Amino acid sequence: MIFSNLHTHCWFCDGHASMEEFLRFAIAKGFDSYGISSHAPLPFDTKWTLKKDDYDDYRREHLRLKEKYADKIQFYVALEIDYLGDFSNAKNEYFKDKTFDYIIGSVHYVDKIPGGRFWNIFGTQEVFQEGLDNIFDGDIKAAMLRYFECEKEMIKLGGIDFIAHSDKLASRASKYEGFSINETWYKNAFGDMLQCVKDHNLKLEINTKSVEEKGTSSPHPQFYPLIREMQIPVVVNTDAHNPDNVDSGLRKTYQLLKQAGFKSINVFYDNKWQETEL
Ligand SMILES: [Zn+2]
Ligand SMILES: [Zn+2]
Questions:
Q1: pLDDT, position 45
Q2: What's the pLDDT score for residue 115?
Q3: Which of 72, 228, 235, 270 could serve as a FRET partner for 87 with CA atoms 20 to 30 Å apart?
Q4: DSSP-based helix, strand, coil % in the chain, nearest 5
Q5: What's the confidence (pLDDT) of residue 116?
Q6: 172-227 pLDDT, tens digit each
Q7: Which residues have C-beta under 5 Å from ligand 2, the single-atom ion?
Q8: How many angstroms is it from 11 CA to the middle of ligand 2?
Q9: What is the pLDDT of residue 173?
């Protein structure tokens, strides 16, 4: 099989090592294809996105390393673009004159806290609770439904190749009483989002970032059979922020996908999307 990881970070955003260090780890682990995908700049300051002015350096460093290690690995360049309505999405002016090998779509923010900032659903617990209380009156189900709506808006808008960690909010929501991914309403909402992915010919990421630590990928493995049944193409990535994690959880996840009936996954290789046997 073509061994690939297409969702990773480095010093250009919130990764904990240089682009070159990540790539060297990827080569040491035997990857055939590796992609760097910094968080795209947002219209407000954050500590975890690529700076607007760093774009040229980002592209230059990718090209330098792509050439330097060309005989060892295929190295691709991407961005992980946040969807935040008109405020941030893959169709924004900033991206118009820029090209990448592929684009990842993610939802890390849901709506705006009244009178305040956009609600970062993966920030501190304090910020999470503030948004939940002030936007959704503490209703975790309403927040979850709105999250899936945001993902569907992002999918319909287009300009992305695959959607990252599409049920990531569920692991946080699971800490709230009464929330369960086994509820019918949840399965329906998640299923609707999957249908939207399929209808728009996108790919779905199986994100293995938390496989070692929390024992689950995003989406949760219990949905693998459904994803398989719906014949949605999947891309398996680690979302590594540390070089040690470039292959974290991948093999375990390949096994679970096989058990769920998957025969192949999608990879970016030889400058195009293609299937590789599991
Ligand atoms: Zn992300
Ligand atoms: Zn990421």
A1: 87
A2: 86
A3: 235
A4: 40, 20, 40
A5: 81
A6: 999 999 999 999 999 999 999 999 999 999 999 999 999 999 999 999 999 999 99
A7: 80, 239
A8: 13
A9: 97
Domains of the chain and CATH, by start: 4-277 (3.20.20.140)
Distance 64 CA to ligand 2 centre (A): 22
Measured in Å, residue 274 CA sits from the centre of ligand 1 at: 23
- 109, 110, 115, 117: CA torsion to nearest 10: 0
Å from CA of 106 to ligand 1 middle: 6
Calculate how far, in angstroms, residue 9's C-alpha sits from the geometric centre of ligand 2.
7
Q: In whole angstroms, what is the distance from residue 57 CA to residue 61 CA? A: 6
Gap from CA of 106 to ligand 2 centroid (Å): 8
Q: With the C-alpha atoms ordered 222, 228, 231, 233, is the resulting torsion angle positive or negative?
A: positive
